Amino acid sequence: MTIVKPRVIYWFRTDLRLHDSPALKAALDLEPEVLWPIFTWDPHYVYHVKASSNRWQYILDCQQDLSDSIQKLNPKSKLFVIREAPQTLFPKLFTAWKPTHLVFERDTDAYARERDKVVTDAATKAGVKVITRYGRTLWDSDEVVRKNGGKPTMSITQLQAAGHKVGEIPKPIPAPDYLPDPGEMPINFDHIQRAETVDLNAPHRSLVDKTYKSIAGPKGDSAVETLEELGFPAATTPHRGGETLALAQLEKVMADEKVRGYFSKAQDKPSFNRTSDDSSFASHALRCSVPSTLLLANHGSQLLFRDMYFAAQAAIGSPYTQTLNNPYVRFIPWHLPSKYDEADTGTMAISGSYQVDSPQADKWFRRWKAGVTGFPFVDALMRQLRFEGWIHHLGRHLVACFLTRGGCYVHWERGADVFEELLIDHEPASNAGNWQWLSCTAFFSQYYRCYSPVAFGQKWDKNGDFIRKWVPELKHLDAKYIYEPWKATQSALDDAGVRIEGDGLDEGGTEGIYPVAMFDFQERRNICIAAMKRAFAIGLHGNDEAVKNGYWKQLFEKAGETEMEGLDGMDSSDDNDDEGEHADDADHESHRNHNPKGRNGGKHSRSKSSTAVQEGPMDRHVKKLKT
DNA sequence: ACATAGGTTGCTAGG
DNA sequence: ACCTAGCAACCTATG
């Protein structure tokens, strides 16, 4: 009898790190004869998930740093990057390389689980043993869900109670001090290039996409991809990714906090300008480099929210990142709703595009995205987001509230799309969860607490230094007006050398011109709060029949709602919303947007929260009326 | 059943 | 600089 020593493929995915990796430890505990550290480029992420150059650069940084760290431990090894979908690649590797084990860190999102099942089934068929561990979160999200009665964790109390039942958070595992040699890596099989026709990133590519041109890259050495290979222009972010850098930053922050006596105090006053040198770096450190357990000491509360979102995602599955079919998110008839993939009736997953039910709301959305809303604090944040791929999480609160329930009344899925594209620290579970939180569709519901684009920033930055940095048009404006330039006197504007005009969308950054504010914030705030109140009274959720079959519209109309999908803005009545050429006829019907006060929908079966997951009385009502 | 307290991180006016 | 009450009134957790 011959004893076969383990030959292990370690499959790196989002866990681009060596420290505190239970899965990597499990792989090394096998005492393998050979270990292949590999990364596979998955077309799902390349073509179906929007990402900016900054995001790609950050991920490539993480991969390159990991590869360097592996090579330091064993000069024969590195991160071998293979350009093919894992679902088609692994069955061929199992035959060609003859591994005994495949090891990886589990994910909680629906796509990854589906993909991993395909790969795991292929492994089983090929006689390869699969070992997985959790490792991205404080507790195993699936365990948390189990201890929470199989239900998603929709509050911090639930998460803490469930986490307590799961047990102690394990101590961080040190990085390994050796790695076995990689085995032979014959590529004696056909390379399947991408089959997809969809490419959500096409508009952002400036070069020809060569991502899948060859299985081992242009030099045939399985090196980390470059932005050029991916077809993206150079990144603008000053933030670099990678475990080595992130750990060094963590060490510095902890040392600083000790010196300043902040060690036990979770929160300093937010500073929107500081980034990599303060506690806010935690979010992008978490993305793929620094294990959460190492951050626990001084970022404890933030991490609990993250675990809450991951466990919610683990329980809810694919509808977690959307409204439709999601029993746990409130239905609110926001503008610019997602288009759903008609062909894919099984999951009803969002297809990435949206309906322009209101040209006005669409313009507000495009101005928000471009950082030309005419609200300087909003614009500063959105411009920093685009350039750096990072903004302070309180800044994220403000711009998210402004786009959804506290200004534009645009669907939170639009905002989540933009953050997904631009944030280098983007994680789907946290992104969707936070957008649901801020828009009061799940996790949080106090919609009358509404962030002001003027007052919120002033609390910490009276002089508007943050605005001056990112909105240079207003650099010399008196601090009295910097948050609300529409109030500035002509002489103050003249002194600052700025004119307030246009919508900021067409000109290519004309110097000395800053756009007119999109709307009167107080007015929009009141309209939105009133609309939220009526939507809460109607009480629909993402899986209610009335939402799926469109009957919701009649319910909202009966309640006298006008601030909703499809019911406004089909004329160009808004006085700020003209295209600049026909300003004179802009004031007709200017009162059209005002909500009639009065009847609210409260009488319509206020579905209690506990009925959200079942068929409520509303559903019977709807079915009856539908025939 | 019902009441009460609490909830990452709201804003404003007033002391 | 820092606190409080009032605003209008959401949901969850607990006893």
From TrEMBL:
Keywords: FAD, Flavoprotein. One of its GO terms (molecular function) is DNA binding. PROSITE patterns: PHR_CRY_ALPHA_BETA. SUPFAM superfamilies: Cryptochrome/photolyase FAD-binding domain (SSF48173), Cryptochrome/photolyase, N-terminal domain (SSF52425). Pfam families: DNA_photolyase, FAD_binding_7. Residues 583-592 have a biased composition (Basic and acidic residues). FAD binds at residues 262, 275-279, 320. Residues 593-607 have a biased composition (Basic residues). InterPro entries: Crypto/Photolyase_FAD-like_sf, Crypto/Photolyase_N_sf, Cryptochr/Photolyase_FAD-bd, Cryptochrome/DNA_photolyase_1, DNA_photolyase_N, Rossmann-like_a/b/a_fold. Residues 565-582 have a biased composition (Acidic residues). Its cofactor is FAD. Residues 6-138 form the Photolyase/cryptochrome alpha/beta domain. One of its GO terms (cellular component) is cytoplasm. Residues 565-627 are annotated as: Disordered. GO terms for biological process: circadian regulation of gene expression; entrainment of circadian clock by photoperiod. Binds 1 FAD per subunit. The keyword Kinase does not apply. Belongs to the DNA photolyase class-1 family. PANTHER family: CRYPTOCHROME, CRYPTOCHROME CIRCADIAN CLOCK 5 ISOFORM X1. This is Photolyase/cryptochrome alpha/beta domain-containing protein. The lineage of its organism: Eukaryota, Fungi, Dikarya, Ascomycota, Pezizomycotina.
